[in-house]
Amino acid sequence: MMNQQLVLASRPTGAPSVDNFALREVPLAEPAEGQVVVRHHFLSLDPYMRGRMSDAKSYAAPQPLGEVMIGGTAGEVVASRAAGFAVGDRVVGMGGWQTHFVGEPARGMWRKVDTTRVPLSAYLGPVGMPGVTAWYGLERIIAPKAGQTVVVSSAAGAVGSVVGQLAKRRGARAVGIAGGPAKCAYVVDELGFDACVDYKAHADVRALATALKAACPAGIDGDFENVGGVILDAVLARMNPFGRIAMCGMIAGYDGVPIPLAAPQLILTSRLRVEGFIVSEHPEAWPPALAELGAAVADGTLRYREAIADGLAAAPAAFLAMLRGDQLGKHLVRLA
Amino acid sequence: MMNQQLVLASRPTGAPSVDNFALREVPLAEPAEGQVVVRHHFLSLDPYMRGRMSDAKSYAAPQPLGEVMIGGTAGEVVASRAAGFAVGDRVVGMGGWQTHFVGEPARGMWRKVDTTRVPLSAYLGPVGMPGVTAWYGLERIIAPKAGQTVVVSSAAGAVGSVVGQLAKRRGARAVGIAGGPAKCAYVVDELGFDACVDYKAHADVRALATALKAACPAGIDGDFENVGGVILDAVLARMNPFGRIAMCGMIAGYDGVPIPLAAPQLILTSRLRVEGFIVSEHPEAWPPALAELGAAVADGTLRYREAIADGLAAAPAAFLAMLRGDQLGKHLVRLA
Asked: What does the alpha-carbon distance between residue A259 and residue A232 come to, in Å, rounded to a whole number?
């Protein structure tokens, strides 16, 4: 039996391409004592992976060339010589871009999950890292009061969609920023945001700020930032005194394009707090976040969509499509 | 008897000039019931006044044209029909750019001060608004641990000089940024900072960042930002993970020059917290701050210098000199 794997073959210069990845097959190893074999059902595609492809200084070490790409996965234990894991267990962890994981459970950061009321794939989305990311930024940094206005960019994405719905649950006004009328309709009609600004319909920072003013008549108290660049400039111009900006992603600059902040003095004049965070560094937040998110998915009050590609070979193209924002929702690759 | 006053005659376009101010004399009014007359000994000159001269949106209403310029003052009660204030009391408050204040004590925000061990003028500097500003940003935002490195720009100024000394008192490494060898020598030799970078000796952000790297071999954990622009860009590039930036002033942009932040994505990748603040909005911080600062000035462990101009007519030129950074220390005008 073979294990299919995708490795990083080269680093992108500018935008990444499918040629940066290489598919290979290796024999599927038997588990040694203390190891498990997990058959992956789903691979998660996330923006942070773009950062790992480059070797620029960042919070995480770059993905080594020639090794299996890092990635969250969900699957089923198919062999186990590790205490606490049995064949048939549903698990979620960091199995990488491959059809199977073989190794110690701690290396895969596996945790068992209950799929009775929450689908397995949701543990890679609203009840997984993207959901906890949304929860942490909203709850621990923005901390909106009822009636305050929260803006989130990439609002139709895996993180942004949860941010707005959590803000609504706390009695705040939720305003999304997304690209194109289809995404904006989804954000408002299906996710229940109060408004959504289509940034592609507004040519420059001034037009975007004007659209935000209309969508946020009482100003902006909290911003969950996934994009940066012109979008952040426009949001900053509309922030209320004592506003909070949770800086989660700066995807506008991921390909090396400069994304200067035009008017940082607004942080002073509006007495803002801007805070960058990486959710994996806040393990204490995961249990309360997962409790709320799991319950909300189980009872159907937290909505989400998935954009699923089939087969490991489709992962590179699906990853690039995710970065481009071709589809809305959580991007996954189905592996079994 | 006359009251000499300086009013804002016009708003600057670009850099301010002495022509933006006009001197006038009005008869000194008798105090009405509930009022005091304070004879000003010192007028404080502070960077925030530059912001009030413009009518751009900011945290404070612009200074109205034709009215006495806002400003902190220290003086002596020379007539009183207000409870709690007696002739001879030494007081500090917001008396404005004039030789005398006449009005209700609350309007001048007067508080009585003890000049037994702390000179009256110090209540406008290290034991006044500039000192509390330094204390708040360092203590409540940067909160350095012993051994961490704190950088402060305008290090030879009224606020920056206190920031570094307070950082040293907390066991941190204090590194200043100042313009010219004289200021840097003062910061290190007299104030006791560990190092000082002369930004005028480094032509661009890369050279400045290199100089900061040498002065901060373990990186920067806290930045007290008074300047912005290229200086902030250079500091940001050297910030350690989980660093804090207390944004107190952005004087590089006060004349309308754009001061974009080149790489705001560093806030995310270094998981920084950037917080703007105005010390007058944090009244709860003043008592503990003034207690520490007053004791440290009284026992001589907190050092400061004053740049004193004589007579109200000299105030506009002295104010412009303060903005240019011609002299180090706290800028005052002696009025009596």
From this structure: 10
Q: What is the nearest CA distance from A167 to chain B, expressed in angstroms?
A: 22
Q: What pLDDT, in 10s, does the model give residues B2-44?
A: 999 999 999 998 899 999 999 999 999 999 999 999 999 999 9
* Class of domain A2-125+304-334 as given by CATH: alpha beta
Query: Alpha-carbon distance B270 to A58, whole Å?
Result: 7
Q: Nearest CA of chain B to the CA of A132: how many Å?
A: 17
Q: Is A233 in contact with A261 (CB distance < 8 Å)?
A: yes
pLDDT in tens, A160-194: 999 999 999 999 999 999 999 999 999 999 999 99
Query: In A, residues 47-66, which contact B (CB 8 Å cutoff)?
Result: 57-59
CA–CA gap between residue A187 and residue A47 (Å, rounded) = 20
* Burial grade of B14 (CB within 10 A; 0-12, 13-18, 19 or more): exposed
Using a CB-CB cut-off of 8 Å, the residues of chain A touching B219 are none
- Nearest residue to A121 (alpha-carbon basis) of A332, A336, A335: A332
**ipTM score assigned to the predicted complex:** 0.93
**How close B83 comes to chain A (CA, Å)?**
36
CB contact under 8 A, A265 and B272: no
- CATH superfamily ID and name for A129-280: NAD(P)-binding Rossmann-like Domain (3.40.50.720)
- The residue assigned the tokens 């991007």 is A331
Delimit the CATH 3.90.180.10 region(s) of chain B: 2-125+304-334
> Best residue in A159, A205, A231, A268 to probe B by mutation, most B CBs within 10 Å?
A268
List strand residue ranges (DSSP E) for chain A, in order.
2-8, 21-27, 36-44, 73-80, 90-93, 100-103, 111-112, 149-153, 173-178, 195-198, 220-225, 239-247, 273-276, 306-310, 330-334
Where do you find CATH 3.40.50.720 in chain B?
A: 129-280
Q: How far apart are CA B128 and CA B94, in angstroms?
A: 11
Report pTM. Answer: 0.94
